[in-house]
Each structure stands twice: as C-alpha cells, then as structure tokens.
TrEMBL record:
The gene is rpiB. NCBIfam families: PRK05571.1, rpiB, rpiB_lacA_lacB. It comes from Salinicola endophyticus. Residues 140-153 have a biased composition (Basic and acidic residues). It is an enzyme of class 5 (isomerase). Its EC number is 5.3.1.6. Belongs to the LacAB/RpiB family. Keywords: Isomerase. GO terms for molecular function: ribose-5-phosphate isomerase activity. GO terms for biological process: carbohydrate metabolic process. Residues 132-153 are annotated as: Disordered. InterPro entries: RpiB (IPR004785), RpiB_LacA_LacB (IPR003500), RpiB_LacA_LacB_sf (IPR036569), SPI_LacAB/RpiB (IPR051812). This is Ribose 5-phosphate isomerase B. It holds the Pfam family LacAB_rpiB. PANTHER family: RIBOSE 5-PHOSPHATE ISOMERASE (PTHR43732:SF1), RIBOSE 5-PHOSPHATE ISOMERASE-RELATED (PTHR43732).
Length: 153
C-alpha cells in the first residue's frame, strides 16, 4: 500500500450493515478507521453524521471519508455543505477513481439500497488507492470551485 490514511466512516440506519463491513474492509487495507456511527440500526438524521465527518476532514483530523445512506445522495449533499469539502457519490469504480484523480474529493458516498456490500468494498478500495493529479487538466476546475467557495464566505 502506498499511503496509509486516517479514514472516517459513517452512515445512517439504512446502511448500518454495509458500514460494519466497510470498517473491517478499510482496516484490512491498512488504514486507520474511526466509526462515526450510527452505532446501531436505530433511525438517525444522516446529515448529522455527514456534517461531523466532513468537518473532521476539513479540520485535518482525517484524510478521507466513506459515507453511506440508502442512496448515497443525502450524505453527499450534506457533506458538501462543509467548506472545503468535495464529496462524490460513486456506485462504480471509474467514478470513484475520477472523484479522486480529477476532482480531489475527500469523501466517497454510496447507497446501501443501490449497491451491495462487495461492490462497495471495491469502490472504497479504488477511492482510497487513487490520488489527485495536481497541475493537470482538472486543476483550473478545482481552482475555480475553491475560488467560488472563498468568495461566498
């Protein structure tokens, strides 16, 4: 493994079983993992978990995040509300790779009602092993996103 990451993992009740498998999988890849919950199958507000993980990454306490809910959409929208965060929904390995390589995303989101656990593991592996390519074709786009965000603060 090229790099060991501090990875924040979280979900709502819809993705609880997927999250449990994901934690073991990401640890098995050699990364440090913190479970941000939910810690049982009881209903919660997924934005709270997404905000907490996104904030922890924005503050530099974690390097990457894996967020799951029923579709992966709600946690992506929520995480993207935190300044400096780029969360990308990915239900295939190409999207997971491009989220990192082209978009410098720090968080990948997935839906437990959309894909199975085994595919989620492969997507997370791809996301965590891909790296942003600074200075490439995507750099002006990333710079524009960052500038827009700074202008609105």
């Amino acid at each position: 493994m090229a790099e060991q990451w501090r990875v924040a993992v979280g979900c709502d009740e819809a993705a609880y079983e997927m999250k449990q498998a994901m934690i073991d999988h990401v640890r098995g890849l050699g990364h440090e993992v913190k479970d941000f919950g939910t810690h049982d199958g009881k209903p919660i507000l997924y934005p709270d978990v997404a905000f907490e993980i996104a904030q922890a990454i924005a503050e530099g306490r974690f390097d990457r995040g894996v967020l799951m809910c029923g579709t992966g959409i709600g946690v992506a929208i929520s995480a993207n509300k935190v300044a400096g965060i780029r969360a990308a929904q990915a239900h295939d390995t190409y999207s997971a790779e491009r989220a990192r390589k082209s978009n410098d995303a720090q968080i990948v989101t997935m839906g437990a009602r959309v894909i199975g656990v085994e595919l989620a593991k492969v997507i997370a592996t791809t996301f965590l092993s891909s790296e942003y390519e600074p200075g490439g074709r995507s750099q002006p786009k990333i710079d524009r996103i960052d500038a827009y965000e700074r202008e609105r603060r």
